[in-house]
Amino acid sequence: MHFFRNISFWKKLLIMGAIPLALLGVVIGALSYQRADNVVRQSEKRVLSDMINRIDVSLNVKVRQVDSLMQTIAGSAEAQEIAQLSHSAERVVAETAELSRLCRNLFGPFSEISDVNLLLDEHVIYTSRSEDAKIDSDVLTMLYEHADRYPGKAIWSNLTTGLYTREVKATDELLIYIGLRNENEETVGLVVAEVNPRTFGSYILTKQKILSYQTTFITDREGAIICGDNAVRDDWREVILLRYKAGERKSNVTLDGTIYYVCSQYNGLTGWITFTMIPDNKLFPDANSLKQYTTALVAVSIVLASMFLLVLAIATTKPLERLKIGMKQVQDKNFDLQLENDRKDEIGELTETFNYMVNRIHILVNQVFQEKIAQKTAEIEALQAQINPHFLYNTLDTINWMLIDRDEMEVSAIVVALGKLMQYSMDTATSMVSLAEECRHVKDYLLIQKFRLEDRLEFTLNLDPSLESFKVPKLILQPLIENAIEHGIHHSGRPGILRVNAVHAGNRIFITVSDNGRGMTPDELYQFKRLLCNDSIGYKNIGVRNVARRLQLHFNDRCEFVVDNTLGGGLSITIVLPLDDDMLPKDTSISIDEEGTA
Description:
Blueprint: H1 2-6, H2 9-74, H3 77-84, H4 89-93, H5 97-107, E1 113-120, E2 123-127, H6 137-149, E3 155-156, E4 174-181, E5 187-195, H7 197-208, E6 215-219, E7 225-228, H8 234-245, E8 250-255, E9 258-266, E10 273-279, H9 287-331, H10 346-384, H11 389-405, H12 409-426, E11 432-434, H13 435-453, E12 457-463, E13 471-473, H14 478-489, E14 496-505, E15 508-515, H15 522-532, H16 542-554, E16 560-566, E17 570-578, E18 592-596
Parallel strand pairs: 12-14
Antiparallel strand pairs: 1-2, 1-5, 3-4, 4-5, 6-7, 6-10, 8-9, 9-10, 11-13, 12-18, 14-15, 15-17, 16-17
Helix pairs in contact: 2-7, 2-9, 9-10, 11-12, 12-13
């Protein structure tokens, strides 16, 4: 994480884009390959299943043909006549010529049938064999048992050594047989055909075979292999049969470390089972090629996408680099810098904002610089005209005691008020005072004005007790009151009434200074409002302008000035200040109500 924080922004963009894209590409590639592999494998499995079904259908056709021939021979007049004879073999042999001709005509086209026999009890009445041989009594007994159990049905045996005993062991054969019954419905004879299993099934398997690397074989009811297109080891056959007997008709079987897919089909006519098996990796022989192709495609896509992301990251961060260089130049006090911008996106807006900010800083720096020059000039002028405030205040205190000694208490009160007024005005250590303290200063000033104007001035001070501790810049009311007395009441020619009210409503404070003086002409009102907006052109009242400017600076231009004027009827100036919830005191039980009368 520390490394990620310290690398450049374009590298972060590249990493944040390339890594998810690479992961997404790998996931999509893996899922696509897996999906394709599953589709191909399922398709191959369906092909194998269809193939083994076709083998079973062909086998049924072949079996039904042979069954039909056996039924034809067993139901022939010659065979039925033999079944009704006694056990005299000499008479029967003389009458088999027609039966021989029938068997040759029926079984001639079937090369799989090697021999056809007709037996009456244990005697061979007819055989197509050329050499004499002895019947295997065990096999014959089994055939009679099955024929008696399934009368009139052609029965296919499991693999056996054949109907006749042989001195030399030959290949196993299949027997298909059907019983001959007399009028008493007793099984007295058999029609038995010997079938070569390799010839019988190999043609079907070879014809239906699809893939060269698949192995298909047919087993009898005991699991012995009747025929197959490839050799199958006995241990493999046993494993496959065990899985089949466990109910797995289609399954994956591991043989000598190789996984084979095995599909099976049961034949209802013979009871035989057809198996086909193929190595699992041969179901989709091109899987490795597809995997390599998918891997290469994903890799190329990731590389191309990463290159695109690289170009995008550089294109995105290049204007940010210009901004960084520009900020360093601004740090070096190059406030005349303006960056070129032809973009309309968020970075373009950021560049425009930067240019505006630099321009605004340039203006503010020049303004502060000019203000500092003006402040230094004012300080020099103030020093030149300065009178020692302590000397002046001590002199007023001496005059006050002299007046007290002469019992001039009214004049003494004026001197005390003037001293307080001077002390309040000359205290430069504090620029913010409570509204209650500001009202007390105003009262001292009004007492002096009351002494000067006598009956021509009445004043009232009303302060909401909850606003006593509200902080305001010092000396914001005295210039407004002085303006009302000098320009309103003094020239009205009638007794003046001056009111100062401070209340709050909602989240705002309303401080109103009103008089009943002469009011203002439209031109004077226009100039006065420009003065309150810090536009001093054509107006000489520096005190009022100073009040407006200081309030705007302190309250971040959130203060308002409302002027109500009636020519000949007086002027009202209301200062509207913002009030936050934490500015009001918890206890508002104290109230101030100042009032002065003539």
